[in-house]
Amino acid sequence: MRSRRLVRDRATRGPQATNSRGYQRSLTSTEPPRPAGTFSLVGRFRYHRPSKLGLAFGPASHQFRRHNRLVGLDTAWQRALELAWQSFLAGTTPVGAAVISPAGEVVAEGRGRRYEHSDGNGRQLAYCRIAHAEINALAGLPPTQHFDDHILLTTLEPCCMCLGAAVQSAIRRVHFAGCDPYGGASNLVIDTPQARRRPPTVTGPLPDARGRFAELLHVWWLLDFGAPQPVLEPQQRMIPGIHEVAARPATSNLFDRLRHDSADVEQAMTAVDRLFGDF
Ligand SMILES: [Zn+2]
């Protein structure tokens, strides 16, 4: 079965590998092959097998559990998903991001605010096309230090702008939860002396319910928003199982109800899990 795991090398387009995203195997068996590995933002090949990185996302991975325990990734992912859900409830692009320290502390965070008129205190970009979650998170970092040992978590595969912002912020590791086959730029090559000095890697998607939730939330939002076909077509082609569930009337009913009830992210994720229950 083909993998959707997306940790790939930008210059060589990376090897493909099997992965552990079990639900994708049942949901999206007709998906085209997705590359696997760890992308480097520079031309140098940096593919890693997840178990060697200690960042494996497989649910049975001892390395993954150990890494989570060490740096608090689970808590940070939870916060990023909360932020994405807040954006969803606010009616804007549902993406959340957090920067975490080696100790696992969230030191900066942001969320998508493209269609919001203000963040309430003027600290984050809003109501413009570049009001992305990652930009708003990185904007919270002080300019007087580097962040080589920090990780930028984002619930959706970052775009070219946000990857560039990560390089500018001296962030070495970017992890994303769900794929964005249209705007996702994890195969982007940034071959500058600056990027070569601190070559960042991009890893994702998460092979579990968090990645699935992030993708479904985004694709459903695109459908509900009336995104044009050039935006939707890559979603349908690359993550057809997610697109199919997102297009169901039952899914629209569910998200409308969750929004009406101002449900929290845990309630939303539990409800979304049930949507996939018959697969
Ligand atoms: Zn972006």
Briefly, what is this?
The protein is α/β, with parallel strands linked by helices. The chain is about 40% helix and about 10% strand.
Question: How would you characterize this protein structure?
Answer:
This protein has 279 residues and is an alpha/beta fold. 41% of the residues lie in helices and 12% in strands. It contains 12 helices and 6 strands. The protein has helices at residues 22-27, 50-53, 62-71, 73-89, 133-138, 160-168, 193-197, 209-225, 229-238, 240-246, 249-260, 265-275, and strands at 39-40, 96-100, 106-111, 147-156, 171-178, 201-203. The protein has a 6-stranded mixed beta sheet. A hairpin with a 5-residue loop joins strand 2 and strand 3 (106-111). Helix 8 packs across helix 10 and helix 11 runs antiparallel to helix 12 (265-275). The longest helix has 17 residues, at 73-89. It is globular. It starts with 21 loop residues before the first helix and ends with a helix. Mean pLDDT is 79; it is low at 1-71. The structure holds zinc ion. Residues 132, 134, 158-159, 161-162 line the site of zinc ion. Zinc ion is lined by residues 132, 134, 158-159, 161-162.
| Number of helical elements | 12
Q: What gap, in angstroms, lies between the N and C termini? A: 16 Å
Shape: globular
The strand line-up of the biggest sheet is: 1-6-5-4-2-3
The kinds of small molecule bound in this structure are: zinc ion
Instruction: Describe the sheet with the most strands.
Output: 6 strands, mixed
Which structural category do the helix and sheet elements fall into?
A: alpha/beta
Strand content: 5-15%
Helix content: 40-55%
